[in-house]
Amino acid sequence: MNLRPYQSRAVDFLQHRIGIGARGLVVCPAGGGKTIIGAAALSISAQPWDRIGWACNTREQVEQGEAALKAAGVKAAWVKCVAGITREDTASLDFLVVDEVHHLPSASWSLIADACRGTIWGLTATPKSPDPERNFWFARFWGEGNTITIPRAEVLEGGHLAHGRVVILDLDQQGEFDAMIESAAQLESLKMARRFPMLDKQEIYRRAQWRTTLDLLIENPARNAAVVETALMEIGRGQSVLVLVAEIEQGERFAALIPDSIVAHSKMGAKKRKAAIDAFRDGTLRCLIATSLADEGLDVPRASVLILATAGRSGAKLEQRTGRVMRPHEGKGVGLVYDFADAGASMARSQGLARRRVYKQLGYAIETSALCAAAA
């Protein structure tokens, strides 16, 4: 296995964190090959009598982990790569590798880690959470000096990531939908208050406001037309287009209007989902429409254009999502992202501004366009 310089550095780092209770965390940009780092470290460090567990969050990540372990030639007494590993599985492990380890502070994942008495290595591109308590727990779990961070600039300069370009489509007049959302949110909050009497009234209203805002974004004709027109334009240019949606029904409506497209989601069955992703990966399918399936673990280097049909404010999710089109591939010079300003709805506009800050932090070039055609 030929490792890039920063991957070799990370492998060396993990090799020095082996033994009972030892912990090592690798923070590597999406597309930087963190799965390869974990597998390569195991190939060097694990002994034939060791027991190895590789914990993942999705079936796609399991497949990637299995492929990386096989490529690295990892051999041990027991090697298991699974999604939803149990604490009974981890109690007897010599090595536990947790992919997308930013999920670790959640109750189920932390119990799994606590049960392991062997070496624990974590892999992630996005260690930070908006929740300070989760961040505190996360930092305490790994301890001081047990984290190596691979700079995004190093991966980019080595040609292992594409440069990012973001086109923000500005279609609405500022605040034009706020009165409609306010009225709908008041009605929705009354319904939610009956269902969740223990929740604070302000929290209930905040949830109702976001639900009605999301409904408006999903049903906005101008916005949906822009998604379809942009996808058709980029497919016409020979690009491989990934469209991320909030709901399956939304994706199915887009698929009916975009030829050579398929909606991939967790409810469609593993075989059909894999077939759709494989077709997109090899170029026989030009447009893949996906739900949260694409938030993590979707490895499709051919994807060159991402359309965020709906998006929130989570910086971690945004970095993961945009990372889908930043992986290098033959003929790809730039990973192109289409987002929306959503000026017509105050809550969505605020989230759009938060995403813009994340784009700047990631070093993406940003431009604003009033029309899809202006992005040509």
- Tell me what portion of residues adopts beta-strand conformation: 15-25%
Helix content: 40-55%
- The helix-and-strand class reads alpha/beta
The ordered H/E elements are HEHEHEHEHEHEHEHHHEHEHEEHEHE
| Rg for CA atoms | 22 Å
Separate helix tally: 14
Distance between the termini: 40 Å
- Multimer state: single chain
Average pLDDT works out at 89
Most strands sheet: 7 strands, parallel
Number of strands: 13
Q: What form results from the Cα inertia axes? A: globular
Which short descriptors sum up this protein?
six-stranded parallel beta sheet; 14 helices; disordered C terminus; seven-stranded parallel beta sheet; 376 residues; alpha/beta
Give a brief description.
This protein is an alpha/beta fold and 376 residues long.
Q: Mind explaining what this structure looks like?
A:
- It is a single chain.
- The chain is of the alpha/beta class and 376 residues long.
- It has helices at residues 5-15, 34-45, 59-72, 87-90, 107-115, 132-142, 152-157, 178-195, 201-219, 221-236, 248-257, 270-282, 315-322, 346-362, and strands at residues 23-27, 51-56, 78-83, 95-99, 119-124, 147-149, 163-169, 241-244, 261-264, 287-290, 305-308, 334-340, 365-369.
- The strands form 2 sheets. The protein has a 7-stranded parallel sheet with strand order 9-10-8-11-12-7-13, sandwiched between helices. The chain has a 6-stranded parallel sheet with strand order 3-2-4-5-1-6.
- α1 crosses α2, α2 packs across α3 (59-72) and α8 (178-195) packs across α9 (201-219).
- Residues 372-376 have low confidence and may be disordered.
